[in-house]
Specification:
By secondary structure, this protein is of the alpha/beta class. The chain has 12 helices and 12 strands. The longest helix has 18 residues.
Length: about 325
C-alpha cells in the first residue's frame, strides 16, 4: 500500500431540521493513495456526495460536521477557514460536480469561467492566463478553443460541458480531483471519453482521484480501490479486484448479483428486496438488516459492526460475511 495523500477519518455529518436529525455520513473512514483512483460507490442518498462536499468545506446549510478529520498530506482540512480554505480549492484539491452545465455560471463565457480560477489564485493574468485557458481546453479534447471560449454554457452539449468542467478542475494541476458522478446523463461514447480523460490525468500527471459513482462497472474499469457505502456508513472497502471479485458484505454481494454480466452466461438477476432506510430513522444496529438474507440475532440486537479486516486489506462491517463468490 502506497502513502495516502488524502485521508477521511471517522467523519460524521448531520442535517438537522426542526425535530429531525439526519445522519447523512456516520463514521466514514477511507484513504486515497497517492497517484491512485478510489471508487466511492453506493445507491443514491447513501451519503457519497455529502462526504465529498465535507472534504472541501462545501456542505450546504443546514449540514454540519459533528466529528472526524480530513487530512491532506497530514494536515487536517477541517481546521481551515476563510482564505486558507479558498487557496486549497481548485489549486490543491478540485471537484467536478454532477450536471456540470447547470453548475456553470450562465452569464459568463466558457473562457471567463476557466480564466477566473487562474486569476483568483494569482497564477497568471492577461495573455498568459488566456494561453493557459486554451491549453486546458485542448488538453481535455475540445476543438477550436479560441471559438469555444466565447460560448456560453447553454450552447454546450452535455459532453462538452463535462469537459469544460474538467478543464476548470485541472487548469491549475491539482494533486487531488474529486469527481462526483462525472459520467451521469451522458451517452456511452461520451462517457468513455470522459473516463479516458480522467485516466490520462492519473497516468500523465500523477493526479489522485476520488471517483464517486453508483456504477460498479465504471469502478471495475477505473479504480484501484473501492469503498462501498450504505446508509451513511462504509459497508466494505479494499482493493477493487478483491471486493468486486469476492465480495464479503451481503450488500456488496447483492449489488453484484443484481447486475447483468457477460461472463456468466444465462442466469437470473436477483434484485435487492426492500428499499434503503430513512436516514432520519437509523438505529445503532446494522442498517442493512431489513434487506439482508444472512442476518443473525446479534445483527438485530448489537450495535452496527465495525470495519474488520478479513484478508489482504479487504475490510467488512458485518457479523456474518459472505464466504463464497459468484
Amino acid at each position: 500500500m502506497s502513502e495516502p495523500i488524502l485521508e477521511v477519518d471517522n467523519l460524521r455529518v448531520e442535517y438537522a431540521e426542526r425535530s429531525k436529525r439526519v445522519r447523512a455520513v456516520d463514521g466514514v473512514s477511507f484513504a486515497l493513495e497517492r497517484g491512485s483512483i478510489l471508487g466511492l460507490v453506493g445507491e443514491s442518498g447513501c451519503g457519497k456526495t455529502t462526504a465529498a462536499l465535507s472534504i472541501l468545506g462545501l456542505l450546504p446549510h443546514p449540514g454540519k460536521i459533528k466529528e472526524g478529520a480530513v487530512r491532506y498530506e497530514g494536515r487536517d482540512l477541517l481546521t481551515l477557514r476563510g482564505e486558507a480554505l479558498r487557496r486549497l480549492r481548485g489549486r490543491t484539491i478540485s471537484m467536478i460536480f454532477q450536471d456540470p452545465v447547470s453548475g456553470l455560471n450562465p452569464v459568463l463565457t466558457v473562457g471567463d469561467q476557466v480564466e477566473e480560477i487562474i486569476t483568483t489564485h494569482g497564477t497568471a493574468t492577461g495573455r498568459e492566463a488566456r494561453s493557459l485557458v486554451h491549453a486546458a481546453l485542448e488538453r481535455v479534447g475540445l476543438a477550436d478553443p479560441d471559438q469555444l471560449t466565447r460560448r456560453y454554457p447553454h450552447e454546450l452539449s452535455g459532453g462538452m460541458g463535462q469537459r469544460v468542467a474538467i478543464a476548470i478542475a485541472t487548469v491549475l494541476d491539482p494533486a487531488v480531483i474529486i469527481a462526483d458522478e462525472p459520467t451521469s446523463n451522458l451517452d456511452m461514447t461520451v462517457q468513455a471519453g470522459i473516463l479516458g480523460e480522467l485516466e490520462r490525468l492519473r497516468e500523465d500527471r500523477g493526479t489522485s482521484i476520488l471517483l464517486i459513482t453508483h456504477d460498479l462497472g465504471v469502478v471495475a474499469q477505473m479504480a484501484d480501490n473501492v469503498a462501498v457505502m450504505y446508509a451513511g456508513r462504509i459497508a466494505e472497502r479494499g482493493p477493487v479486484r478483491q471486493v468486486l471479485g469476492a465480495p464479503r458484505h451481503p450488500y456488496t454481494y447483492a449489488l453484484l448479483r443484481a447486475l447483468p454480466r457477460l461472463d456468466r452466461g444465462r442466469y437470473r438477476l436477483e434484485p435487492i428486496k426492500g428499499a434503503p432506510p430513512d436516514l432520519a430513522e437509523l438505529t445503532e444496529e446494522c442498517a442493512f438488516v431489513p434487506r439482508c438474507r444472512k442476518a443473525l440475532s446479534r445483527c438485530r440486537t448489537d450495535a452496527s459492526p465495525p470495519l474488520t479486516e478479513l484478508e489482504h486489506g479487504q475490510l467488512v462491517a458485518c457479523y456474518n460475511p459472505v464466504y463464497q463468490s459468484g
